Amino acid sequence: MRETVTVTGASGYIALHVIALLLDEGYEVRGTLRDMARVEPLRAALARHTEVSNLSFVAADLTSDAGWDAAMTDCQYVMHVASPVPIVEPKNHEELIAPARDGTLRVLAAASRAGVRRVVMTSSNAAINSGHGGKSSFTEADWSILGDGTGAYASSKTIAERAAWDFVAGLPVDHGMELVAINPCVVLGPLIDPDGSASIELIRKLVAREVPGCPNLGFTIVDVRDVAAAHLAAMTSPQAAGNRYLCTTEFRWVAEIAQALNQTVGQRGYRVSTRRLPDWLLRCVALFDPAVRRMAPRLGERQEFDNSAIRRDLNWQPRKVEDSIVDTAESLIELGVV
Question: 129: domain CATH number?
C-alpha cells in the first residue's frame, strides 16, 4: 500500500519542490492550503514537472484548528513546511511569531492524534545564528539568542522550533512521534510556481536591475531541490530521528552572485550591475526602505555553517552554488517574473 505524506503550506516555494520529489518517489501526497482556489493552478504547475495523479489538497490554516485532523487522516509522515516568510520586517513581531508557533503546535497535535510516525519540520538557520554578537561559525548545537534586536523572522523560527521539540518531548511514551528539523540558509533555485519566495528576491532584483549595484553583503546558500532531498532523507533515514540539520552549502558575496549571473543570463541581455555600493549609501537607503533596513546590520558580515552532520547522516550531496544562482535566474525569466 502506498504511504501517505501530508505537506503543510503546499503552495510555498520549498513545499512545491518537496511535493514534486515525493510524487516522483511514489508517495501519496496531501497538501494543505489556506486558499483552495489555488488547487488547479498549483496542480497545473506541478504537472509540468511530475505525475500528479497521487496528489490531493485539503483546506487548513495555521491560525485555525479547522481542517488539521482531516489533513492527517491515514497519514504516515508529515512535512511541516508552512511558515510565514516576510519580505519586509513587520512592525508587530507577533504577526509572524503567533502563526509560526501556534500553527506548528496545531500540526503536531493533529499528527499525534492521527498516529503519524515522523514529522520533518522546515526550520531555518535563523533559529541558529541570530543574537550571537561576533560569533561567525555555527553548528546544530547553536540556538539563536532572542532579544530586542532580533528580527521577527528569526524570532518566529526559533520559538516555533523550540515549541516543536518541547511538544514531542512531552508526548507519552506509548504515543511517541519522531521529529526531525531541517535548517536551511538562503534558499535559491528554480521556481515551480511564479509566486516565488522572499528568499529569491535578491536574484530577482539583480536581474530586473532594481538595485544600482552590489552592497557589501553575503549569504550562505542552498538549492531548493537539495532542501527537498534533505526533507525526504530526513523522513526515511532511521538515524535522523531527534536531530536538527543545518542544510547549507557555501557563502557568496552579492558581487560574486552578480558575476555568476553576468556570465550566463547576462549574455542574453539580462546584464547585472557589478558596481560596488559603499556601506554609507546602503545605510542612508535603510532610513527609508524597510527591506534594506533588515540587511544593513549585516554589512561586511560573513558566517559559516557546518554541514558535516547532514552529509554524514543523510548522505546529502548538494549542487554547486553557481548552478543554484543561475537556475534561479533562468526560472524567473522563463516564468516571466522578470
Answer: 3.40.50.720
Nearest alpha-carbon partner for 321 in 263, 232, 248, 246: 248
State the Cα–Cα distance between residues 74 and 104, nearest whole angstrom. Answer: 20
The count of domains in the chain is: 1
The three grid cell numbers given for residue 325, joined into one nine-digit string: 544562482
| 137's grid cell | 561559525
157 in catalytic set: yes
Active-site option among 135, 157, 205, 320: 157
CB 215 within 8 A of CB 285: no
pLDDT digits (tens, 9 = 90+) for 181-220: 999 999 999 999 988 788 898 899 999 998 889 999 999 9
- Cα 44 to Cα 20, 199, 285: the distances in Å are 12, 23, 40
Amino acid at 132: H
Average pLDDT rounded to a whole number, residues 56-80: 97
Predicted TM-score (pTM) of the model is: 0.94
Residue 87 has pLDDT above 60, yes or no: no
Q: Which domain holds residue 13?
A: 4-334
